[in-house]
Amino acid sequence: MIESHLEITGVNMDFPTPTGPFRALEDVNLKLKKGEFVSIIGHSGCGKSTVLNVVAGLYLASKGGIVLNGKEVREPGPERAMVFQNHSLLPWLTAYENVELAVKQIFKGKKSKAEMKDWIEHNLALVHMDHAMHKRPDEISGGMKQRVGIARALAMEPEILLLDEPFGALDALTRAHLQDSVMEIQAELGNTIMMVTHDVDEAVLLSDRIVMMTNGPAATVGEILEVNLPRPRERIAVSEDPDYNHCRHEVLRFLYERHGNKEEETNADAPGNGNGNGKAKSDADTSEQEKTEASPKMKAENIVDFNKQPEEKVA
Amino acid sequence: MSSDTIYERKINLQLPEFLRYLTPKKVLVSIGTPLMGIALFLFIWAALAPHVVTSLGAVPGPKQVYEQFTMLVDEHQAERAKEAAFYQRQEKRNAKKLAENPDAVVKIRDYTGNPTFFDQIGTSLFTVMAGFILAALIAIPIGIVAGLSKTVYAAINPLIQIFKPVSPLAWLPIVTMIVSATYVTSEPMFDKSFLNSAITVLLCCLWPTIISTAVGVTNVSKDLQNVSHVLNLNWWTHVRKIVLPSAIPMIFTGLRLSLGIAWMVLIAAEMLSQNPGLGKFVWDEFQNGSSNSLGRILVAVVVIGVIGFMLDRTMLFLQQKVSWDKSVALR
After folding, report:
1. Which residues make Cβ contacts (< 8 Å) with residue A158, sequence separation at least 6?
2. Does residue A272 have a pLDDT over 70?
3. Candidate from B231, B237, B324 with C-beta closest to A78
């Protein structure tokens, strides 16, 4: 068996509540290869972010664990850099200083002052923020803040990049720009990326594999979908691609048909902002009609096939 | 060159905007209303004061109080003149002595006149700042540690809660006894009275700063704490880069509360223990019981109020200097 880069094995996550423990995750298993882009999608509150926090080490799994490069991780560390949903930049530091804080922490004694400066500027340039690097977070837009957040994570040269709904709070246009940036960066650096999202188009456009989670409590991996689209992917061209639409349909079917949740359908997880072709809405409608005949082969694709490499991988 | 033009442009942009908001009506409202309030207060005071007759005569109105103030200024100037004259005489005497006999040992004596009203203000300000700054230096680190560690907080919280409501004047006898027992040197750097007042002030303004700092530190946003965890920041960097900037507003809230308490405590302590300062001035005037006394006490009351206000403004100014968020409205 090929040794995988990151292994999530039998993770249970219980949170203590006054009325006894609440089981958020149950038996989550997932393996990531090096350089792979994996999205986790699911309804709000299903524990997507919890999975990411366990991988980041911010939560310690109640059962099971995380193995990165053959070593168990139990604490947060810079080799698993996280990009937070609301950017989490220190508001009293400029973009440059925010990245500097991370760089100083990780490369202290390994890089000279000038090298660090170059490295910080290089990473800010990578996310196209070199023009505003001496501005403070309150002086730049939401999208720019998120870019700085990504630059900070990239500057740590992480083994794996964790993105927690990184574009959730942004408008559609900014989001599209940032998605392109992330694809660009991944093509250049070949990072392993794990992203939590609730946006179907985003997941399909960016990922090699999409992990669909069942609804909580005791959420787990429902299905895993391989996205075999050639890279580089171009959002306009790809939206016409039958494979793309098939993938999209599969994810929507999973979310709405099998794990539909009346309340969610109308708001939080409404898809279709990446390409804005209005098709998502009709998809959601039809799936609601089809809901009556839910198929029973729910946990079928739980096992990951490692021999099946996505052949379109462009470095 | 280019930075100059940018600077100029900035001013050009700011000035008209600033002026646009200054309509005559707004000026009238923002300056006129407080003035009207003060005028009304003075009028009521002047009208009512003569009707309240005490053994020392009627309560002085604003006019008499102002007269007393000018008298205090005159007394101060007279005292200073006397002091200058004293030193001049001494110098002359010594010069003459040295001229007669170059080996003579000259004695230089300090002037020991009565402290004037303004000397007392200086003493009080110095005492309050000494006690307050020492308290801040002790309280802020304790507050940070208590905010970061639930255990430390649980350990010191009951003590804080019990000591906080204790009146400063209850501390005063104990402080006095301890100072006179332990501070025994032939050549003291500080007066005992100064130490008594400063330590009493210190004891009373520790608590609000500790509590506010701890609350500020506890409320550091969870996101920023996560950033710190992911970066594996060490304790000191975590405190310096994340905790302190987050907690600055709360720390200053505590400091301002403390300074307000410190100023009130000091006046009371000076009155009770006859330590030099504004409190002693008030007490001396009360004991003196001349027809001017009430007026002079009222001058002191107004001055104490004005200084308290200015101390608070100074803290606010400092907060603005230290805080990263200049846009936040401070009040």
Report:
1. A78, A79, A80, A81, A191
2. no
3. B231
Question: Which positions in chain B touch A57 (Cβ < 8 Å)?
Answer: 229
**A72, A66 contact by CB (below 8 A):** yes
Question: Which residues are CB-contacts of A199 (< 8 A; sequence separation ≥ 6)?
Answer: A167, A168, A175, A271, A273, A274
* Confidence check on the interface: ipTM exceeds 0.95, yes or no: no
Residues A210 and A227 sit within 8 Å (Cβ to Cβ): yes
- DSSP structure string for A115-179: HHHHHHHHHHHHTT-GGGTTS-GGGS-HHHHHHHHHHHHHHT--SEEEEESTTTTS-HHHHHHHH
B322 touches chain A (CB under 8 A): no
Q: Does B100 touch chain A (CB under 8 A)?
A: no
Who contacts A224 (Cβ-Cβ below 8 Å, separation ≥6)? Answer: A209, A210, A211, A212, A301, A302, A304
Pairs from A272-276 (Cβ < 8 Å, separation ≥ 24): A272/A200, A272/A201, A273/A172, A273/A175, A273/A199, A273/A201, A274/A172, A274/A175, A274/A176, A274/A179, A274/A199, A274/A201, A274/A202, A274/A205, A274/A235, A275/A201, A275/A235, A275/A236, A275/A239, A276/A172
Residue A2 tokens, joined: 């090929």
Q: Best residue in A84, A90, A162, A194 to probe B by mutation, most B CBs within 10 Å?
A: A90
Which residue of B226, B233, B245 is in closest CB contact with A92? B245
Residue type, B214: A
Test the B interface: residue of A75, A84, A105 with most B CBs within 10 Å? A105
Residue A133, token pair as written in the block: 């690097």
* CA contacts within 13 A on the Cβ side of A285: 5
Number of H helices, E strands in chain A: 10, 10
CB contact under 8 Å between A57 and B229, yes or no, is yes
B243 contacts in A (CB within 8 Å)? none
> For chain A, what percent of residues have pLDDT higher than 70?
81
Chain A residues near residue B229 by CB distance under 8 angstroms? 57-58, 76
| CA A213 – CA A24 distance, rounded (Å) | 12
Select from A58, A78, A93 the Cβ nearest to the Cβ of B232.
A78
Average pLDDT of chain A to the nearest whole number: 79
So what's the pLDDT on residue A302? Answer: 38
- The two tokens of residue A165 are 């709904």
Res. A312 pLDDT band, cuts 50 70 90: very low
pLDDT band at B20 (very low <50, low <70, confident <90, very high): low
CA dist., res. B210 & res. B216, Å (int): 10
pTM for the full predicted model? 0.76
Each residue of B196-207: pLDDT tens digit?
A: 899 999 998 999
How far is the alpha carbon of A315 from chain B, nearest alpha carbon, in Å? 28
Residues 6+ away with beta carbon under 8 Å from A197:
A39, A40, A41, A48, A163, A165, A167, A168, A203
Which of B226, B237, B327 is closest, CB to CB, to A58? B226
